[in-house]
C-alpha cells in the first residue's frame, strides 16, 4: 500500500491505482477510506461492477446495510446479476434480518455457479438464523465438501454441534474457523461458550472478552461473558457486562434477569425481585430471570421450590449460540458463598 500511496505525492493516480489503493484499505479494515475511494471512482466516471461490489462491502463492514443494499441494487441494475453481487446481497439481507430473502439470494448465486462453496456457506448461515436447523446443517456439509475452510459453513457446523453438546466436533469447527478469521465475533462467542462447558473458565473469559470487542452489539455474547464472570466469582464484572447488554437494548428480558441474578448474589433481594418482575414482563420465558427467581426462593427459605424451579431450566435453541444455562446455573450454585475474586 505504501507504494500505491506514493503515486499520490506527485500526481493524480490512474483509476487502476486508485482502485487498488481502495482495495488495500478495504483489506486492512480502513472501511471509511475505502468507501470514499470507491465513491470517488464512481463520481469521476470510472464505474465498474467491482467498484460497486467493493463499495457495498465496505458499507456492510461499516454496519450500513441500507446504504450497502442501495449500492448493490444500482450495481445489479447497471451490470446485471453475478454470483459475487448476489452473495453480497445475501449477506446484506442477513444483516437486515431478512434471512429468508438472504437464502434466496444465495440460491440465485448457486443457480449461476452451482459449486460455489461461499454461496452455499452463506446460505447455510441464513438458514441457521432463520431457525431451519436441518437445512442449515445440510447446506453447511455441502459447503465444507467444496471447501473445508469455508467460514460461514464452519460457523454453522460448530454452532449446531455446540447446541447438541457434541463438544469435540464443535471445538474442531470453531478452531478451524478462527485459524483463518481470528476476529470472527460469532466464532469467538461460540468458542468461549464451548470452553465454559469444558470448564476452562479463565481461557473462556479471554475469548469472550475478545468476542465482545469484535461484536460489541451482540447481547448474547455479553450474557455469555457475564455467566463466565459469575462462574469465576466476579460479580462486579458480571454486572458491568449485563449493563453493557442493557445499553444495547433496554427491553431484553434476559438482561434484566441477569441484573436480578447479580442483585441476588450480592444479597439485595428487593432489587432482585424488581428486576425479575421487569424481566418477566418483557419476556415470560427469560431463562436468567427464572434462575434469579429460583435463587430468590432459596434465599427466602424455600430450598425445595428453588431446586424444582432450577430443574425446569432448559437452554433456548431459538437463536444464535444459545447458552447452556441449566448447566451453568447448576455450577453457579457452588459459588454462592464465595466472595468476589
TrEMBL record:
InterPro entries cross-referenced by the UniProt entry: TPR-like_helical_dom_sf, TPR_rpt
Membrane topology: Single-pass membrane protein
Superkingdom of this protein's organism: Bacteria
Keyword field contains Membrane: yes
SUPFAM superfamilies given in the database record: TPR-like
TPR repeats: from-to residues: 253-286
Keywords of the record: Membrane, Repeat, TPR repeat, Transmembrane, Transmembrane helix
Tagged with keyword Repeat: yes
Primary location recorded for the protein, binned into one broad class: membrane
Localization annotation: Membrane
Family designation: Belongs to the Tom70 family.
Protein's name in the database: Tetratricopeptide repeat protein
